[in-house]
Amino acid sequence: MHFTRAYKIVKTFLNFGLDELIPSHLFPWYGRLMRACFFWLGNKHKDKNAGQRLRLALESLGPVWVKFGQMLSTRRDLLPPDIAKELSLLQDNVAPFDGEKAQQLIEQALQLDDIHQLFEEFDNKPLASASIAQVHTAKLKHHDALHQVVIKVIRPDIENAIYADLKLMAQLAKLVSQFLPDGKRLRPVEVINEYRKTLLDELDLQREGANAIQLKRNFENSESLYIPYVYSDYSRKNVLVMERIYGIPVSDIAALEEQNTNLELLAERGVEVFFTQVFRDSFFHADMHPGNIFVSREHPENPMYIGIDCGIVGTLNKEDKRYLAENFIAFFNRDYRKVAELHVDSGWVPADTNVEEFEFAIRTVCEPIFQKPLAEISFGQVLVNLFNTARRFNMEVQPQLVLLQKTLLYVEGLGRQLYPQLDLWKTAKPFLEDWVKQQIGPKAVFSQLKENLPFWGEKLPEMPDLLYKALKQNTNKSANVTIQQSNRGIVWAIFAMTFTLTGTVFFVTEFIMPSIALFSTATICAWRALRHSSNHQV
What is the spatial distance between Cα 476 and Cα 440, in angstroms, rounded to a whole number? Predict the structure, then answer.
């Protein structure tokens, strides 16, 4: 079976002339020899350009390859712009499977003898059909009421087909990496591994449900984003039941204009929602293409997004968030030295990177961007340029940043489609600067202490014991002056820590004056500790 599938893939690639996309200087002699062995398989689509041939080839190979092409369309660092643009046209709409079969799968997953035990109504005709799953509408009997819901169900036997194609993709990636001169730079193995994880995550609808619940909690009472309610009690790995929504597809500009939607505010909120997810929550919807985003029909003057299909999410740790925010700010301040240093400090490029050379490379690539008005500068293209330049300096693939870049490209394209005059930098800069300020300074210190209070509250009762042990050790030691100075330093340091922690408790509970007195005392103790420490060193 694998051999038959592999032959079909090779045949498809050659019938669409994809071998012609490889530049002659990058096509080694053994590659040309292997191509000659399939002399009967020629290009049957010479009338089409390279991007069209690649898109049509992926569509003919099926859903796994279609989704792979969709992912590649966001990797502008790997593909020429014209090919990436053509791949962005790939549609994830495929013929639906039998509705009776979908009903059987739902009954099996929920252990129902008949679907009407749980659902008053169930429509066998799917509302939508995609490569991994399809969606049916129903009315759920829940808490003595009927709820309009949609039921998402994974296609039967799709898992085996996905694993088989992923295995072949991985083998093909290894061949490209080993035998094409430019193979290692393109990092095909890492790209396929990243795609594999993303695709397998989409097969687990319970994971998608959990992601939706998290996003909904993050935007509770928000006027910008609404996530449909998930009925987790009735959801399984291959079945997801959630609230049905009735919004306008965000790509339907005519319908939005017809109801007098405030498109400028809608576009700005898209940017705000993205940066809020990334920098406030460290948890962002990473598949925000137009098919997954709707606009509420209520209050068009104060429009709200509705997000669905939360199977793919991204996360950033604190270091990545801080470095990313500072990178954006430094870039728009044209501080390329700072951009280079941030890449090194974050570990995105090796520590031995020549910062001067890296700074010059970033300036060479990015400075021409500022010849455009600020409102026309593409955030997504900024990331592409930065990561592309950094890759020349051996930057490792950062999966979380790839997802971020993909999502930003979606958000930016969406925002400018809604409101072409949208100035992303004007919208985003205050948000980024405020976030950076919150991470440094006294407010950030107190916030961090407050976050760690449960830990220190547990340790605080141990401080007297530590002080007693230090004093006892001091009396048991010899009268050596150096040892006494060292022990006194330890004692003052313990005092300083104790007063600091106690002061923090008072500050958080809004006893301001006692906290000021305790912090002042802690400062004196810390000074005494440092003094004894310096005397000990002398």
Answer: 44
